Amino acid sequence: MSLVDLHIHTSDSDGKYTPAEVVTRAAHAGLKLIAICDHDTINGIVPALEAVSKFPSLTLIPGVEISTDVPSGEVHILGYFIDYKDGELGGILAGMRNARIERAHKMIDKLAGLGVKIDWPRVREIAGSGTVGRPHIAQAMLEKGYIFSIKDAFVQYIGRGGPAYVQWEKMTPEMAVALVVRSHGLPVLAHPLTANSPEALVAELVPAGLTGIEAFYNDNSAEQVTWALNLARRNNLLVTGGSDYHGLDETAETPIGGAPVPEWVAEKLIALARERNIGFPVTLKPEAAPKK
Strand pairing of 238-242 and 212-217? Predict the structure, then answer.
């Protein structure tokens, strides 16, 4: 179990647990540092900060995960230490959430045409106050017995290229990186292996302000972690890591703290935030960082 998890979702996007519940679960698991990075929303940050004040040994980094528009593959940009009170950021993300609702309706219609009939009210109920996303649709499919796991929904129906997949209008990766920078945050490429030609993508995003890539992700193999570390080193980027926890399928998901994220990763992220005058009241005792 790692003491650091820099990629966790809550019910304010497509996770199962509220921000306060996520914080409590992380604290009880013995974590020292977490980042909540909900999809296209920052609404969960304030309640998470309020909850973390009850746990002196746990620190929270305010974050976000921004969806982007690419021809193929999947590219998400994580933003750490973002100014969650920034009006521009909040407004743009609100527009993206509305687009997600329209997309969900279209996917439900496509599923119905395939004989998979789920109800919008139930999907909305599963999402609760959070941003409607594909995991909520998958959960509704699972409840009705159309699939055996959340993963099945993505592989067979709603993943990119699937028969019920719907493309939606998002910003480009470069625009997402620039938005995080304008919001006084540190932009990081999430799960780079989901992108087509990640080496070329990183080269394009560095001039826009990219500061890191996610290397210690979910269940990455040792070879995949090494590849990501080398990619970061070649581009003079830091690395991050996390579980990408949603809590929707506890039997298959990497749990909070389940990704092997070394503490030196967090220390370097914090150091860069301080270097750029982003205040952050924590000092970790990191493991020895690898030599460059």
Answer: parallel
Which neighbouring-strand residues pair with 189?
A: 77, 213
Which domains does the chain show, CATH number per domain? 93-158 (1.10.150.650)
CA gap 252, 257 in Å, rounded: 15
| Model confidence pLDDT, tens digit, residues 80-130 | 999 999 899 999 998 988 888 899 999 999 999 999 999 999 999 988 877
Q: Encoding tokens for residue 133?
A: 């996303």
Supply the mean pLDDT for the chain.
91
CA dihedral 193, 199, 203, 209 (to 10 degrees): 20
Contact 126, 97 (CB under 8 A): no
The pTM of the full predicted model, rounded to 2 decimals, is: 0.82
- Distance set, CA 233 to CA 112, 174, 199, 214, 218 (Å): 47, 21, 12, 12, 21
